[in-house]
Amino acid sequence: MKTLVIGANGQIGQQLCALAAEDGLPIRAMLRRAEQAPWFSDRGIESVIADLEGDFRQAAEGCTEILFTAGSGPGTGADKTLLIDLLGAIRAMDLADAMAMRRFIMVSALRAEEPMQAPEALRPYAAAKYAADRLLRLARTPHLILKPGKLTNEAASGRLTTDPTSVSHITVSRANVALALREVLLRPELNQAEFDLLDGNTPVEQLFS
Ligand SMILES: NC(=O)c1ccc[n+]([C@@H]2O[C@H](COP(=O)([O-])OP(=O)(O)OC[C@H]3O[C@@H](n4cnc5c(N)ncnc54)[C@H](OP(=O)(O)O)[C@@H]3O)[C@@H](O)[C@H]2O)c1
């Protein structure tokens, strides 16, 4: 088993990689630039330089699953949303299918299934997430879709919920999302499932039980 983490240098990605390294979980961090690599090598984490807008097939050689936590981010326009959040995700899914991987883990977004309900400025992003999730459900590779709410930089509480009706907020800390992703990596049998993710009261170890 080896997980290719796409978006590994991101705010969730880095936290997840650090947790996975502590547990000795086999991961490979896909990075865009060589200067990002020392942070990972300092923690004993294997990395590879590749870009979702380029040919990243080689980055996945020898990996058995993909965790997609990349995103074009709020600082770019709808063009990059299309090329990274949608096309990048589709190309990663195609790669997982072609390489007969065991699982594709998608970091999607809460309410991605209702893009036209999102605030107007967020609709292209929500549409990209919606379309990527729909295609992933049709892919040959077993999938797991996690849908975090609005991300915050709060410290990890280690407690989340997958039931939005049980809380009165729509937020989740990136640190808690990273803990949930580590839990997913520890459970290779967890697939063909989708979970909303919000800060909550359930210990992360029991979240997917
Ligand atoms: N913001 C929210 O409230 C929210 C809510 C729900 C879900 N999400 C999702 O959560 C995920 C991660 O969030 P985050 O806060 O960790 O995001 P982030 O810090 O912006 O990280 C995004 C990562 O994607 C990478 N990336 C961008 N373009 C790429 C490309 N062409 N090829 C390869 N990698 C590329 C970035 O690389 P560099 O480090 O090189 O820039 C970065 O490491 C995203 O999928 C996002 O859509 C966000």
Q: Looking at this structure, what is the CATH superfamily?
A: NAD(P)-binding Rossmann-like Domain
Helix content: 25-40%
Rg value:
16 Å
Shape: globular
Low-confidence stretches: none
Query: Please, how many domains?
Result: 1
Q: Determine and state the CATH class.
A: Alpha Beta
Number of helices: 5
Element string (H = helix, E = strand): EHEHEEHEHEEEEHEE
Bound molecules: NADP nicotinamide-adenine-dinucleotide phosphate
What integer is the average pLDDT?
Answer: 98
Oligomer: single chain
Q: What's the short version?
A:
Helix content is 32%, strand content 22%. It has helices at 11-22, 37-41, 78-98, 123-138, 174-185, and strands spanning 3-6, 27-31, 46-49, 65-68, 103-107, 143-148, 150-152, 159-161, 171-173, 193-199, 202-203.
Question: Could you characterize the architecture of this molecule?
Answer:
The protein has 209 residues and is an alpha/beta fold. The chain has a single domain (3-149, 173-192), classed as NAD(P)-binding Rossmann-like Domain (Rossmann fold, 3-Layer(aba) Sandwich). 32% of the residues lie in helices and 22% in strands. The chain has 5 helices and 11 strands, in the order βαβαββαβαββββαββ. It has helices at residues 11-22, 37-41, 78-98, 123-138, 174-185; strands at residues 3-6, 27-31, 46-49, 65-68, 103-107, 143-148, 150-152, 159-161, 171-173, 193-199, 202-203. A 9-stranded mixed beta sheet has the order 3-2-1-4-5-6-10-8-11, with helices on both faces. Strands 7-9 form a two-stranded parallel ribbon. β4 (65-68), α3 (78-98) and β5 (103-107) form a beta-alpha-beta unit. Bound molecules: NADP nicotinamide-adenine-dinucleotide phosphate (NAP). The site of NADP nicotinamide-adenine-dinucleotide phosphate has 23 residues, from α1, α3 and β7.
